[in-house]
Design goal:
- The structure is a homodimer of 261-residue chains.
- The two termini of chain A are 21 Å apart.
- In chain A, 39% of the residues lie in helices and 15% in strands.
- The longest helix of chain A has 19 residues.
- Chain A has an 8-stranded mixed sheet with strand order 1-10-9-8-4-5-7-6. A two-stranded antiparallel sheet of chain A has the order 2-3.
- Chain A is α/β, with parallel strands linked by helices.
- The first copy, chain A, is built from 9 helices and 10 strands.
- Chains A and B meet through strand 1, helix 1, helix 3, strand 3 and helix 4 of A and strand 1, helix 1, helix 4, helix 5 and helix 6 of B.
- Chain B binds a DNA duplex (30 and 30 nucleotides) through helix 1 and helix 3.
Chain lengths: 261, 261
DNA sequence: CCATCTTTGTGCACGCGTTCACAAAGACAT
DNA sequence: ATGTCTTTGTGAACGCGTGCACAAAGATGG
């Protein structure tokens, strides 16, 4: 997953563990599917399987919510859907602004997942004057000069940043100054925000790198191939490093020591 | 973050904790930036600030790598960049296929983050015959009938799924059967894969819902405004629910009538 | 009304991850 | 050389999250 967090680490929100909160949307999705099939109740076992988690974990998660199931029967689907929706704050409307309408921003604007659950794309904002007024996914793009005004008028508290990394922090600062208190960041940068503002990041590149790590490990474990000989100091003394990382590399494809950003 | 994991839970890969692996790309990015500015060394304090983490955590992370810094001085930037790149497997070339070239798939194809670090878009695959041959981000889209052939020929081990949720599992199964062992899933579904296959998921909707949860909590904490008196209880007592969800909530944020024990 | 069977809710233990705090290592100046 | 100063590397404590295993709750059938 592309999970990045920058949460108040120790603040267990109202007794509900952060890990549980992160799973609630998963349960909700599974429950919604069941609801559409008019299934009246589910056992923790079934629902857990559908959500891809352990049933004991699921029961414990629900216990934090106070949602009660019925022993010997399971959970009432409709009731749980409502309870979780309410807990997540999805019973109200959340206007969202997307800043940076490039390829990604446009894709996000058209993403069905937004509209589906309480989230409404209130505005699309881009710094390029050529984009202004142009409709994307049916919504006209507005110029970033009006950012503050847009946020204020629509009472937007959630912002999505899909700009190039270089301007992400500046955009973030403006959003926060204008009143946004939750940010979903797609730009490959670490954003710094004042206390009270939540930032979650989605980073393509990081996810791929994590996969690559495991992939490499799998390859190295193969019986035929010798495990990475790395451990044996790669040469190059630390202190007086003059670099000249010149040319060493694994047995397979190599890459320059210094990689692009 | 949009992090979803489906990792071998207990398998601490070669002694490097999963949490550390997830941070390495972050360090790498910060280090690369320093490298471009020709900064020769950094202290754990500085680098930690740049990566947005605690310096003690950073030092411990590096200690797992065996990368040595120099006491009193710090870490050699170039050396670390190389070490981390190698550890993450970025010193080799990773061909990647993207399946599902809709808005999102197209955006991903054009995303710079892919090409920048050892990842190469080997192929774009879509089930729509109308897309076949059409170039997206400079790469011609291929039909999904040829999926197996493409994977085999290019030796692809990483696949990105950007299809609608409905077909994600089917696509996933085909990818895995064809030899892919790492999957980055953008479709809002839980994928089930055999052991040995890593899946990471990026889920827009889930990230937003998590933000909404915290946002709601912040709003509820406000002294002035009363918490949203949203939807009147959805009714629907489960089995024999008698809990009148009626009027709950304290003076501050509201809380479901039924709370955890 | 009682017995049986199913499924929840949770006490408990364990392991991972985070953080503190400090000794050791080295740079640098004298 | 010796002393001082900076910064690393890590032992140890703590807290969160996970999963087991079981008692309690309730449904169901006789």
């Amino acid at each position: 997953m592309a999970t990045g967090r920058t949460h108040r680490p120790a603040t267990r929100s109202r007794g509900i563990p952060e890990a549980t909160v992160a799973r609630l949307p998963l349960y909700l999705r599974a429950l919604t599917a069941l609801s559409e099939r008019s299934v009246p109740t589910v056992s923790s076992e079934e629902l857990a399987a559908a959500a891809g988690v352990n049933s004991a974990k699921l029961r414990k998660d629900f216990s934090y919510l106070g949602s009660y199931g019925t022993r010997g029967v399971g959970y009432d689907v409709e009731y749980l859907v409502y309870q979780i929706s309410r807990e997540l704050g999805l019973t109200q409307d959340w206007p969202v602004v997307i800043v940076g309408i490039g390829n990604l921003g446009a894709a996000l604007a058209g993403y069905g997942g937004f509209a589906s659950r309480g989230f409404r794309v209130a505005a699309l904002i881009d710094a390029d004057p050529a984009m202004t007024g142009k409709p994307v996914a049916g919504i006209p793009v507005q110029h970033s000069d009006d950012l503050e005004k847009i946020i204020a008028e629509d009472g937007v508290s959630i912002g999505v940043i899909a700009t190039p990394a270089g301007v992400a922090q500046a955009v973030c600062d403006r959003l926060v100054a204008a009143g946004v208190t939750s940010i979903l960041n797609f730009a490959p940068t670490v954003l710094s925000v004042p206390d009270g503002v939540d930032v979650r990041k989605v980073d393509l590149s990081i996810e791929l790198q994590i996969l690559a790590f495991h992939e490499q490990r799998k390859a190295g474990e193969e019986p035929g191939e010798d495990a990475a000989p790395q451990a044996a100091a790669p040469a190059a003394p630390p202190a007086a490093r003059t670099t000249a990382q010149g040319g060493r590399k694994g047995p397979d494809g190599d890459v320059p020591a210094v990689m692009p950003a």
